[in-house]
Amino acid sequence: MMLPALFRQLLSLAHHLSRYWSTQALFIAGYAASWTMFACAAFVGDTLLHNLVNQWRWLYLHPLWITALLFLLAGIFQWSPIKWHCLLHTRCYEQNTTVPPWRRGYRYGLWCVSSNWALMLLMVGVGMRNLLALAILALVMWLERELPQGKMLSCCAGSACLLYALLILSLPLF
After folding, report:
1. What share of the chain is helix, strand, coil (3-state, %, to 5)?
2. How many Å separate Cα 101 from the centre of its chain?
3. At a CB cut-off of 8 Å and minimum separation 6, what does 31 contact?
């Protein structure tokens, strides 16, 4: 799902024409390693959250609060300067060719994780039940990295997340 975001980075590796495929494979392996670390952390967090819900009856009876909290967290992060700083790093290319491709991929993956972790949590927490929501979130993450108006899109996505969190809390059946 995140591989389309790598196309521009993979094209920047073209200076290794003699080892083009192996360079790309190492870059992708490093990128995948950073996302795998995020996935493991998200899995542990999800397991802990399920244990908390099982032990806390009020939270068990009001699961929409968890959804609202996820949207609130994503909305706040989308507006944060940290998000834009990390997003800027995903747009630039590392020119240092002495760094091994797997390390470049790993570093690039860490910047991607840092800029998209909140929306990825929404994908895992909410989007897995709705394929259209999953596709929209993936498109937003890709477009905010690729478009010059990425910051505006990020703010719009953040506003939508904040608005949806308020709707969830104000209209419990929504």
Report:
1. 85, 0, 15
2. 22
3. 2, 6, 105, 106, 108, 109, 112
Which position has the token pair 């995140």? 2
Residue range of the domain that includes 81: 3-170
Distance, CA of 137 to CA of 173 (rounded, Å): 23
pLDDT, tens digit, for every residue of 106-116?
999 999 999 99
Residue showing tokens 């995948």 = 32
- The pTM score is 0.83
The position carrying tokens 């521009």 is 8
Instruction: Report d(CA 101, CA 166) in Å as an integer.
Output: 44
Amino acid at 123: M
Q: Are 96 and 15 in contact (CB under 8 A)?
A: no
Report the domain count for the chain.
1
pLDDT in tens, 44-84: 999 999 999 999 999 888 888 999 999 999 999 999 999 99
CB 137 within 8 A of CB 119: yes
d(CA 53, CA 59): 6
